[in-house]
Design a protein that fits this description.
The protein has 218 residues and is of the alpha/beta class. It has six helices and nine strands, in the order H-H-E-E-H-E-H-E-H-E-E-H-E-E-E. Strand 1 and strand 2 form a beta hairpin. The chain binds S-adenosyl-L-homocysteine.
Length: 218
């Protein structure tokens, strides 16, 4: 007997709402729309709808659904807005982003070619039109800038300057920032004018390190 993934997805979404992580219909609908079981590796698929981080290979992990929900609610994205995601991994978060802003509005950058290929393949197999780029995301992705939102799924010592330059006025950066490689605070930075930013510190979190010229050393 196959597992009833649709039921599991609905149950997790209801729980995330009950616990207060999902607060908007937009993000809730995205969680209902993306088949997480098709993004996580086979060996951890049975846990696809547990609220836990999961290994995705190459020493990397995908965050727990509740953490992803917090970030996406914080991003307050509107349909049609442009998003740069840092850290494609298996592509799950990029798929949620695409559900929210729509096709061809998300570009995701990944430093490990194997994971970029995996993420790109998963996204295509599920019908999401997201551009996946291989590169050092700490430099952003200038060719499609400026963005309404830059969202990082790896932890940085500070917000890389290129992200700030590549964000529109009115746009925001959501990123785990911390002085240690493995512990961060979720920071929301909002660009209120060409030279002004407002910062908000949110929940403590533990993402894999952002490795690159404006991040941590390899
Ligand atoms: N959003 C992903 C989570 C991936 S974990 C998902 O839904 O599965 C974080 C990812 O960031 C890892 O794949 C890691 O390789 C990548 N990463 C780390 N430093 C990076 C950098 N400088 N540029 C791009 N990707 C980076």
């Amino acid at each position: 007997m196959g597992r009833d993934w649709d039921r599991d997805r609905k149950e997790l979404t209801d729980k995330l709402q009950g616990w207060g992580y999902l607060t908007s219909p937009t993000v809730r609908d995205a969680f209902l729309g993306v088949p997480r079981e098709r993004f996580v590796p086979e060996d951890v698929r049975r846990s696809a709808y547990d609220d836990v981080p999961l290994p995705i290979g190459f020493g990397q992990t995908i965050s727990a659904p509740s953490m992803i929900a917090i970030m996406l609610e914080e991003a307050a994205l509107l349909r049609g807005e442009s998003v740069l995601e840092i850290g494609t991994g298996c592509g799950y978060n990029a798929a949620l982003l695409a559900e929210i802003v729509g096709p061809d509005r998300v570009v995701s950058i990944e430093r490990l070619p194997e994971l970029a290929d995996l993420g790109r393949a998963n996204l295509a197999a599920c019908g999401y039109r997201v551009e996946v780029v291989i590169g050092d995301g700490t430099k952003g992705h200038a060719s499609r800038a400026p963005y309404d939102c830059v969202i990082a799924t790896a932890g940085a010592p500070r917000i890389p300057k290129p992200w700030m330059e590549q964000t529109k006025v009115g746009g925001r950066i959501i990123a785990p920032i911390g002085r240690s490689r493995l512990n961060q605070t979720l920071v929301t930075a909002r660009k209120t004018s060409d030279s002004k930013w407002e910062y908000k510190e949110g929940t403590p979190c533990a993402f894999v390190p952002l490795i690159g010229s404006e991040g941590w050393r390899d």
